[in-house]
Each structure stands twice: as C-alpha cells, then as structure tokens.
Amino acid sequence: MSLRRHKSWIGLAFSGLWILGGLYFAFLWFFCRVYVPEGHSLQLRYKGPLVLTAPEAEPNRLAGDGEVGVRAKMMGPGRHFYNPIYWQRNVVPDTVILPGEIGVVTCKVGESLPKGEFLVDGDLDGDNQATQRGILRKVFGPGRYRANPYAYEFKIVKREVKRYGNQEKNSGWVEIPTGYVGVVTLQTNNEQAGLQKGVQSKVLQPGLYPVNPNEQQIDIINVGYNESSIEVQKQVDAQGNPMHDEHGEPLATQDTGINFPSNDGFDIQLDFSAIWGVMPENAAQIVRVFGNLDAVEQKVIEPQSESICRNNGSKMGAIELLIGETREQFQTDVSEDFQSVLSEKEISMLYGLVRHIYIPKNVREPIQKGYVSDELKLTRDEETKTARIEADLREAERKVDLEAERVQVDTERLRAGVLAEGEKKAKEIAAETGRLIAQIDRETAELDAQRSVLLGRASAEAKQMAAEATADKFRLAVQAFGSPSAFNKWEFAEQLPTSLDLKMFYAGEGTLWTDLESVQPTLPLKSAPK
C-alpha cells in the first residue's frame, strides 16, 4: 500500500508540473508576447517591481539596469517576450530618409550644453554616442535608422534656401553643379575640426553634400568668366530698325552708354564690355566682401567701367579718340586701369574692351574727309607704285626670256662639245684597241712558232730516245742470250704461233729443206701473221 501511495504522489507531482509549465507557456505566449513587424522597433520602459521600489532614472536621461525609465536599447523586428506588468512596450516605426533628403537629429537626453552653444558632437549609438542635449552636428543621409524616439528626434530636410537681401544660402541636401563652387559659412565654431565661425576659405567642389542647416550655409558661386556690357541705345525708326546718318554711322540716344565730355568740350559716348570672373580660390573672398556675383557686377564692374572710361577719355580730345594710334592708347590705358582695380578686389579680368566710340558729327566729318583725301592720295601713290612695279615686272620677264634663250644656246653648244669630245674619245679607244689586238696577235704567232719548234724538237728527241731504247734493248737481249744467234732463235720462237704443233721426222742425213716435200702434207696450213 505504501509503494502504491508513493507512486500516486509522484504522478500527481508530475501532472502538476506539466500543468504549471503549460500555464507559464500560455502566460508568455498570450500575455507577454510582443510582435515587432519589419521596419519597426520595440521601445521598452521599465516600470519597476510590484512590491519593492526601484530607483528612477535622472531627468532627461535613459534608464540603466535596475532603474525605472526608458531603456536605451531598441529591439528589432520579430517576437519578443516582456511581462507587461514590469515593462511598458511601445512598437515605433523606424526613421526612413529618402534620397535627396537628410536627417537633422536633436538629442533630448544628456547634460545641458554651455550657454551660447547648441550643436552637439556625437552619434546615435556606439562609443561616440552623444552625451549632451542639443542638435547633433552630424547629419544623416538616406537610409533606415533605429533611433529611440525618447532620446532622439529626427527632422527630415530636403534642400533649404534662405534669402538674405540678394544672397541665397543653401543647406540640407545641397547640389553644386559643374562650373560652380560652394562657399561655406559656419554659424558656430567647430572646435573638433579647428574651424572658426564665419565664411571659410576652403570651398566645396561640384557634387552632392548633406549640410546641417543649423551649422552651415552654402553660397553657390559660378566660377569662370562672365560678360558685362554697357551699351549706347541706338535711335530706331517706326519699324524698330536702327537709324544711321548719311555716312552709315548709327545715331545714338543721348545720355546712354558711357558718356563724358572730351577735353575740348565735345560730348562723347561709347560702348564698353568687360570679360571678368571669379576663380575658385577667390570665391570665399567675394562672398565675404560682396555677397554674390550680382553685387560684384553692380558695385564694382559697372561703376568702375564708367569711372575708368570717363577718367581716361576726358584727358583726350575728340580727334584723338577717333585717330587710330591715340584711340589704341586709350583702349590700352582703360584696360590696364581696369585690370589693376579688379586685381585689388581679387576679381579676374580677361578683357576690358572699348567696342565703339560715338563722336559728334561736326567733329567726325572733317576728320573723315581729311582721312578720305589722305586715303585717296595713298591710293594714287599705291597705284603709281603698282604701275612702276608692273613695268619692272615686264622688264624682268623679258630678261628672263632672254636669259632662257641664252641658256638654251649655251646648252646646245655644251652638248655639241660633249658629243665631239665623246666621239674623239671613242675613236682613240678604238685605235688603241686595234693596236693592242695586233700586238696580242703578234705575240700569239710568236708563241705558236715557239710551240712548233718545241714540239718538233720534242718529237725528234722522242724518236731518238725510242730508237736508242730499242737498240739498247736488243743489246741487252743479245748480252742476256750470250750470242746474237741465240737471240735470233729466241726471237724466231717468240714469233711462232702458240698453236703450232711440232712433230719430229727423221729423214736421215741431209737437210730439212731437202726433205720438205715429203713433210709438207703433214704440216697444217695457216695464214701468215699480219
């Protein structure tokens, strides 16, 4: 009974554990579970224990471990399990910054900034996390950011343009196009970068820049050369066409363009064009002194163009402004003075051109008539020079023809001389060749004669030597056989045919020749050797 009772208690204990486990799981799943969707984060605030008390975080600060308040860490998308009794759970959307926008962040927790400062160095998290309340100096470009809304407040900024008089200050998402630079104006000191408040000398090159509106403002300045002109208004007819006098000069409207009295009291008007510009290294000084290029044109280019032209033109008479050399000197003086003034203000000048000078008709006509008569005289002189030169040319052409004929005759003479000399040389060479051939033929005949003599002598000597050798051979043979008769017998035997068949017949006493008639039938008949 005791064993059975013991087993039943164990079964009840296991059943109770299973029930408690199931209840705890149901509590977690249905009561503590929080689902954070994509693009959102979970902000947690610790409420503290139910019975005991816990210290609260200091005002304007995030709560640490064991402190009541909002925690710094944000949980990402997914399932999370936090007891709602102890935790306040808030699902907040992430901050999304689109292309062409920037995020300006205000830190709402941390220590207070010193008086007069409003920018904070630091980041949203990590080792460089901001520790003071204020606007972060750093701006955030396009992207998705998981930032605690209790600690950080995002302000989405596109391009901001603020006008101060005739100046445009850009911030936010700033685009500097090609051919322009950005002049930076700091609104507060940046001790970390070692920069002081005000217009900065270093400019921004063309590109895209995220600019904190609370820290910087950008002036976009066109670099390169511009053209500014002051022109005289021309009189027009009813149809709007420019009017001209009988000499083709345009009629000018009074008190337009640059006008001044000459030193002889005539009213002069002129057109002036300045090709000027700002280089990148001088853009900051232009903004610092003038504000923008429009102010440069209004305050420097136009006033100085008029002032310099008037000052130099009033020193000269009307005739001097019309005549070429003195007019060119006037242009040179104006250009040099204009260059000097603009250089002092760090403005580059390419050209300062006096384009047209309008001189009164009563001054212009006598001068023009005088110039016309001078030009006619010069024309006549030139025509006379031309006729003289043409006559010289004709004479030169005749000399050329004569010289050509003389050269041709000389050429024929030289050619005939060369041909005669060549024929003479050819005949001399032919005669010399004949003589050499005859000499060679004579030497050849002499050699043939010597050859015949030598060959005859050699033939005779050869026959003599052959005869002497034959005689010597017979002498030696006779000596070898002992007597001439023995040699003759040997010689006779040598001459006999090899097929001779000898037979011995005894005929008794007497001679062979007497008994040949009886022997002759037995001897074979052979032809005599040839």
Automatic annotation (TrEMBL):
Coiled coil start-end: 379-406
Membrane-crossing segments per the record: 12-31
Gene Ontology cellular component list: plasma membrane
Domain Band residues, every copy: 175-391
InterPro entries: Band-7_stomatin-like, Band_7
Keyword annotations of the record: Coiled coil, Membrane, Transmembrane, Transmembrane helix
Domain of life per record: Bacteria
Name of the protein this chain belongs to: Band 7 protein
